[in-house]
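pls read this stuff:
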Amino acid sequence: MIIAMGSARALPGRRENLISAAIGYFLGRRLAGVDLSDYIAVRAALDAFEAPRKPHTARQVQQAWMLGQVFHHAPAPLRPARDALLDRTPFLQKVIGDSSGEILAQLTALDETEHRFTAVRMPNAQ
């Protein structure tokens, strides 16, 4: 399982620790209340865990490819202009940092995950 491999590679003080913790949180919450001996139930929980991550991952891969082209394959005469654009303008912040819609969707996913978890763990608390 790739998730476990990613978690195992995390080293103290690295950003991956945060990512691993988030993956573990969502995976644990998704598997809460699932009979782990029931293959179909586990598969459904894992599919539900993975589904919202696919569009985000696809965007990240596309963005990494695009920025790789900009950073590493610009023709020599254009490199000073590229460097000026990337170093002296908010371009990268706009491309990478201003994904507030995605961040708000992640916060909504956190709330929904907690609600599901609470419903599974404490069915009378609703």
Q: What stands out?
A: The chain has a mean pLDDT of 79. DSSP finds seven helices and no strands in the chain. The CA atoms of residues 29 and 117 lie 6 Å apart. The two ends are 34 Å apart (CA to CA).
